[in-house]
C-alpha cells in the first residue's frame, strides 16, 4: 500500500501544517510516513505545497510522484498541480478560490467545497481552514483514523486552541460526507 | 547494516514525526554540545530555533552573532575554553566561515558545522536542495589541510551522525562538517530511538604525561587538549607553529607540522570513512550515492533488480576523507558505476580518480529538485544500451 497526498495553496494558509498533521496521524496508525514541502523564500503569499507519502513499508524516495489526493486552496495551486493526479484519484478544491479548467484527468473525482468560507463563517476563524481541509480529506478517504488525527492535533496545538481545531476537523469531515 | 539509516521509521508506540533539522539539534544536545554560535539562515533555521529554546533550560549557551564570521569566531573561543561548540548554517554562511575554518584546522580546535545545503551559488534558491558544497567543505579555506565531512540520508541518521560529528571533532581535534541536503533537513518522518543502544559519546582527551606540550607530535597525530583557563598557559595561532604553539618557519618543523595535521585524519581514513552497502554482493552495476539522493538510488536498485538487473548501492556516509582505495576495491570488476549527484559532478571528480578506467556514469541534476529514481534508472539503462549490454 502506498498513498500520496499533496496539499497546495498560498503561503500562510497552514498548508504545510496540514501535511504535518496527516503524516503524524499516519505514524500513529502504524504506517510509514514522509512529509516534505516546496515553498518560496517568502513566508506569506507565494505558492506553498506540502506533501505526504503514506506506506505500509519503508519509504526511500520521500516525494510525491502522482498524488492520490490533491487539495487546492488557490487557483495557482490548481493550475500547477491538478494535471498530476493519478487516474481515479481525488481532487478537492475550495469552490470560492478555484475555477476548474478541466486539466485533471476525466476519471478524477472532484469535490468543490466551501472550505475557507466554512472556516470564516461557521468557525469564525479563517486560520482553521487548513484543518477543515484536513477533515475533508480524511472524511473522503478514511486514510487515517479519527483517533490518530485527534492525537496529532493535540500534539500540534496548545490547549487553548485545540478545541477550535478539533471542531474544525469535525466540520471538515461533515463537509466531505455531505458531498460524498 | 542498519536498515533504518536510509529510510523512514514506521509507526511504533514511541514514534514521533521528526524533522531532519530537529533531529540534528537533538543529536547535538545528546553529544554534549554546550555552545551554539550562529546566525539563522534558511534552510537550517529550525536548528537554531530548537537550540535557542532548549539550551537555556539546560544551562548551555546559545549566542546569536551579527554574522557567520563572528559566529565561527565565537565557536572557536568557546571550544578553546572547553565547550563542545557548533553552528548551523547554509551555503552563504558557510562561505563566510571559510577563513576561520582554516584557523580552526591549524589551531586544532574541535568544531561542528552543520551545513544544510541549499541551492547555490550565492543566494541561489534558499528553500531548494543542491549538494553544492561538497568541494567547498574540502577546499573552501586556503592551504593544505584535512577535514572531516559526513552526509546523512534520513532523519534518524541526522541524529546519530550529528553525534558522530561531535565525537570525530573531539577525537581528531578538527572542524567537522555535517553536509545535510535540504531535502533531509526539512524532511519529516518517523523517529523512534527508544529501543536503540545508548550512543557512545567521546570527549577530547586532556590527559598527558609530564609537562604539557599543547601541539605535541604524538603518535596518533592528535595532541591532548587542555582547555584554556585550566591552569596551562599556552599560545594559539593561525601561523605555522612549533609544538609549543609559537610561530616557526623552520623547514623541518613546518614540514613535520603539515604532515601531522593532514596525517592525523588522512592516515585514519579506515577508521573514519563509513559506508552502507546494499545488494552489493552479486551486483554487476553499482550506484554510488550520498545524502538525499541515496534514497532515490535505493528505489532505483529495487526497480532495476525487479527488472532482472544486478544492481547494488554503495552509500557514502562519509564524504571527507574520501576513501579512494575502498571505493576502488568495492567497485572493482563491476560492469558500470553510476553516481547520481545534485550538483554538476563534484564528488564524481573523486570517484573518477578512484575508479580509473572502470566504466563510470555521473548523473547530474541541478534544477532545485531531488533526483527521481526514474531519472537514475533511465540514465543507467541508456548507458547499458550504449555499452551494448542487455536491456
Brief overview, please?
Chain A has 180 residues and is of the alpha/beta class. Chain A is 39% helix and 22% strand.
What does this entry look like structurally?
Chain A has 180 residues and is α/β, with parallel strands linked by helices. Helix content of chain A is 39%, strand content 22%. A six-stranded mixed β-sheet of chain A has the order 2-3-1-4-5-6, with helices on both faces. Chain B folds into two domains: 11-191, Thiamin diphosphate (ThDP)-binding fold, Pyr/PP domains (Rossmann fold, 3-Layer(aba) Sandwich); 273-386, Rossmann fold. In chain B, 38% of the residues lie in helices and 19% in strands. Chain B has 13 helices and 15 strands. Chain B has helices spanning 20-31, 45-58, 68-80, 91-107, 134-139, 155-172, 182-185, 251-266, 269-272, 293-306, 324-331, 348-355, 373-386, and strands at 16-19, 35-38, 61-64, 85-89, 111-119, 125-129, 148-150, 175-181, 188-191, 275-278, 285-289, 311-316, 318-320, 336-341, 360-364. In chain B, the strands form three sheets. In chain B, strands 2, 3, 4, 5, 6, 7, 8 and 13 form an eight-stranded mixed β-sheet that branches. In chain B, strands 10-12-11-14-15 form a five-stranded mixed β-sheet, with helices on both faces. In chain B, helix 10 (293-306) links the parallel strand 11 (285-289) and strand 12. In chain B, 53% of the residues are buried. Classes of the chains: A alpha/beta (180), B alpha/beta (391). At the A-B interface, helix 1 and strand 2 of A face strand 6, strand 9 and helix 10 of B.
Amino acid at each position: 500500500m502506498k498513498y500520496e497526498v499533496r496539499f497546495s495553496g498560498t503561503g500562510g494558509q497552514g498548508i504545510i501544517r496540514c501535511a504535518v498533521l496527516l503524516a503524524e496521524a499516519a505514524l500513529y496508525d502504524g504506517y510509514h510516513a514522509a512529509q516534505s514541502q516546496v515553498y518560496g523564500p517568502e513566508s506569506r503569499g507565494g505558492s506553498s505545497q506540502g506533501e505526504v507519502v503514506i506506506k505500509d513499508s519503508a519509504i526511500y524516495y520521500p516525494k510525491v510522484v502522482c498524488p492520490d489526493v490533491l487539495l487546492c486552496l488557490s487557483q495557482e495551486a490548481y493550475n500547477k498541480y491538478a494535471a498530476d493526479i493519478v487516474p481515479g484519484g481525488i481532487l478537492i478544491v475550495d469552490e470560492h478560490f478555484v475555477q476548474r479548467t478541466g486539466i485533471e484527468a476525466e476519471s478524477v473525482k472532484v469535490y468543490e467545497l466551501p472550505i475557507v468560507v466554512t472556516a470564516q463563517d461557521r468557525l469564525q476563524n479563517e486560520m482553521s481552514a487548513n484543518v477543515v481541509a484536513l477533515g475533508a480529506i480524511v472524511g473522503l478517504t478514511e486514510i487515517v483514523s479519527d483517533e490518530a488525527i485527534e492525537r496529532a492535533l493535540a500534539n500540534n496545538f496548545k490547549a487553548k486552541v485545540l478545541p477550535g481545531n478539533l471542531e474544525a476537523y469535525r466540520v471538515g469531515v461533515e463537509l466531505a460526507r455531505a458531498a460524498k | 547494516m542498519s536498515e533504518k539509516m536510509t529510510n523512514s521509521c514506521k509507526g511504533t508506540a514511541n514514534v514521533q514525526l521528526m524533522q531532519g533539522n530537529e533531529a540534528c539539534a537533538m543529536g547535538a544536545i545528546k553529544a554534549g554540545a554546550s555552545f551554539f554560535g550562529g546566525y539563522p539562515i534558511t534552510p537550517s533555521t529550525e536548528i537554531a530555533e530548537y537550540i535557542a529554546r532548549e539550551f537555556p533550560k539546560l544551562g548551555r549557551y546559545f549566542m546569536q552573532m551579527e554574522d557567520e564570521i563572528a559566529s565561527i569566531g565565537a565557536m572557536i573561543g568557546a571550544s578553546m575554553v572547553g565547550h563542545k561548540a557548533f553552528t548551523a548554517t547554509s551555503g552563504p554562511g558557510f562561505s563566510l566561515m571559510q577563513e576561520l575554518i582554516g584557523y580552526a584546522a591549524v589551531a586544532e580546535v574541535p568544531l561542528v558545522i552543520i551545513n544544510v545545503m541549499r541551492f547555490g551559488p550565492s543566494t541561489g534558491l534558499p528553500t531548494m536542495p543542491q549538494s553544492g558544497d561538497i568541494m567547498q567543505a574540502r577546499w573552501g579555506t586556503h592551504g593544505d589541510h584535512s577535514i572531516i565531512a559526513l552526509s546523512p540520508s534520513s532523519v534518524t541518521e541526522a541524529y546519530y551522525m550529528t553525534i558522530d560529528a561531535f565525537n570525530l571533532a573531539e577525537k581528531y581535534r578538527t572542524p567537522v562538517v555535517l553536509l545535510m541536503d535540504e531535502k533531509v533537513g526539512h524532511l519529516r518522518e518517523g523517529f523512534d530511538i527508544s529501543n536503540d543502544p545508548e550512543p557512545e559519546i567521546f570527549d577530547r582527551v586532556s590527559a598527558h604525561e609530564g609537562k604539557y606540550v599543547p601541539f605535541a607530535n604524538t603518535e596518533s597525530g592528535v595532541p591532548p587538549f587542555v582547555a584554556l583557563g585550566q591552569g596551562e598557559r599556552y599560545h594559539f595561532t593561525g601561523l605555522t607553529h612549533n609544538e609549543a604553539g609559537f610561530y616557526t618557519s623552520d623547514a623541518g618543523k613546518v614540514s613535520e607540522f603539515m604532515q601531522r595535521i593532514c596525517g592525523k585524519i588522512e592516515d585514519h581514513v579506515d577508521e573514519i570513512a563509513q559506508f552502507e552497502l546494499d545488494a552489493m554482493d552479486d551486483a554487476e552495476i553499482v550506484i554510488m550515492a550520498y545524502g538525499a539522493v541515496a534514497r532515490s538510488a535505493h528505489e532505483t536498485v529495487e526497480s532495476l533488480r525487479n527488472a532482472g538487473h544486478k544492481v547494488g548501492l554503495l552509500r557514502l556516509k562519509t564524504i571527507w576523507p574520501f576513501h579512494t582505495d575502498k571505493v576502488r576495491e568495492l567497485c572493482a570488476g563491476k560492469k558500470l558505476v553510476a553516481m547520481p549527484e545534485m550538483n554538476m559532478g563534484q564528488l564524481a571528480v573523486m570517484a573518477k580518480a578512484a575508479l580509473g578506467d572502470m566504466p563510470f556514469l555521473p548523473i547530474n541534476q541541478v534544477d532545485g529538485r531531488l533526483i527521481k529514481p526514474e531519472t537514475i534508472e533511465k540514465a543507467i539503462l541508456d548507458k547499458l544500451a550504449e555499452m551494448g549490454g542487455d536491456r
